[in-house]
Amino acid sequence: MIRSAWFAALVASAVFFTPAAALATQVLERAESDVELSTGTRRAVDMHRLLTDRAYAQETLDYFSRTVTEVPENAELRVAVDSIRLAALGTLGRNAEIHQIIDRTLAARPRTAVEYLAVLAAAGRFNNHPLLAEIMDHASRNVRASEWSTLRELMPRDGWRSLLQDMWERGDMRSRARLAEALFRIGWPGNSDTRMADSLRSILVEDRLNRADHASATEFAAGLSTPSSVLSMILLKRYDDILSPGEDRLALLRRAIGHREDETAEAVAAAPQNHRVVLDRVQHLRDLDRDAEALALLQPYLSDVAETIAASEDGMWLVTEAARALIDLGRSDVAFGLMAQLAALPVAERIQLVGPNVSLAEMLWEADRVEEALAQAQRIDGEMLQFVNNYGKMRVWSHVVCALTGLDRAADARPWIERMRDIATANEGAMMLAHLCLGDMAAAEAVLLRRLRSSDPSQAVRVLQDWLPGSGPPKEAWLLAQLRVLRSRPAVAIELERVGRILQLPLARTSWSTF
To answer: How far apart are CA 428 and CA 515, in angstroms?
Structure first.
């Protein structure tokens, strides 16, 4: 007999606030707290103690090491036992033994998805990106195709997406490409999610170009069909050789927008209560500056914000998108009334709420409510920073700088700039925004040039585009003016000409171009 429920205690540990560690949490929830061996004995495991108490970890490890031979040939039960043993070994710091178990598991080339659970959890706990990619590569090559759907579900979509993002932020492109290829091989995420599939294709295009494998890069690029992926292809010159010769770039983008229009409309018609489906449609509408249509679709979810957020993890983004649409439509008071309800929810009980809280600081500043923006950003810095990765910290601190300068407190903003310098590579766009707020155009230019000269200038090129005219938040006109000034500076113009191009895009900047 097996019962689940023992891994919730893990989220109390700060080490598990990374995407890879979130994988450990979600994977190990599939293991079990009570294990009844073939002899009929049962051993209840206190996971909080197992992860924090060395003596208890040793005792538990000894017990399962003695009784491991009694475990019947039941894959799920064996995974449960292995998960407990690996967790105990981790608490004891016996990493060499952990790697021996992982190596032994991979060498056996298991054919069923569940047999990869324990080793995925162990790699996730230690935030080992190369090992996570290696395990998924083995799994994608060895798990029988009939079990690929189970393999795809070992971690929720947002978990794998966050892990791929984390690998990018750390500069581990090799692991990122290997993981992306493994996920692509098994058809992750499934359910006709073309945006996520295109994200994987884009990673693989980049990887193949870096290997000078233009044939494979062209093949992956040909499958791209979503506006976000096509946009990078048409803006950056490095992709010119793998696009169809003579193809009109804006025609490619309009075709992708049309495909996305049909896809999201059909999905909402088929599943009008599905939060993920509604969110995809709303984001598409806002991409095109169709905020009134987006808001109409979101209206049923706004009468009870707490209920919407409790219903699914996507609920908090439904509320956030509604607020952004309201701001763009000139209804800021209603927007921030909704966001106040979201911000009042306890983040410690649900750390995913940190994301919308960071967005709230940004939205308040964009709406020119600088005192409230400062208070919100400082609240995050004081109460939630342990839940925020370096990319998010840069977003928060940039809006502290922007709010302080908006209050004519530039001197108070400068220490925050110095604080940002230590982790600037995690989010150079936020660094550029902070310099713009301070009026330091030379420093902003230096950051932009560094981004344009990097191995991935796509976001920097995207920031400088000409976008669909729209009302946007109050700060929109100021931002666009600053970006035009930057774009006209001689050194920037030279680098931009080298790596990319400027197009008149039928998309809204507020939805597409983050710093």
So the answer is: 8
CA 37 from centre of chain: 40
C-alpha to C-alpha distance for 373 and 365, rounded to whole angstroms: 5
Say what the pTM is.
Answer: 0.79
Mind giving me the DSSP string for 255-290?
A: HHHHHHHHHHHHHHHH-TT-HHHHHHHHHHHHHTT-
User: Cis peptide before 189, with omega less than 30 degrees from 0?
Assistant: yes
The string of pLDDT tens digits covering residues 311-342 is: 998 999 999 999 999 999 999 999 999 999 99
Is the CB of residue 295 less than 8 Å from the CB of residue 338?
no
In this predicted model, what pLDDT tens digit does every residue of 392-430 receive, in sequence order? Answer: 999 999 999 999 999 999 999 999 999 999 999 989 999
CB 356, CB 324: distance < 8 Å: no
Helix, strand, coil shares of the chain as percentages rounded to 5? Answer: 75, 0, 25
How far is Cα 5 from Cα 272, in angstroms, rounded to an integer?
Answer: 32
Asked if 512 and 472 touch (Cβ cutoff 8 Å), the reply is: no
Q: What is the DSSP string of 193-258?
A: -HHHHHHHHHHHHHHHHHTT-HHHHHHHHHT--SHHHHHHHHHBGGGGGGSPTT--HHHHHHHHHH
Q: Give the residue among 304, 296, 301 at the shortest CA–CA distance from 325.
A: 296
Write the CB contacts of 293 (distance below 8 Å, at least 6 apart in sequence).
285
Secondary element (H or E) of residue 385: none
pLDDT at 505 exceeding the cut of 70:
yes
Q: Which of 135, 204, 207, 133 is nearest to 167 (CA)?
A: 133
User: What is the DSSP-derived secondary structure letter of residue 12?
Assistant: G
CA distance 305 to 382: 25
Q: Compute the residue count for the chain.
A: 515
Q: In what order do the strands lie in the sheet with 2-3?
A: 2-3, 34-36, 42-44
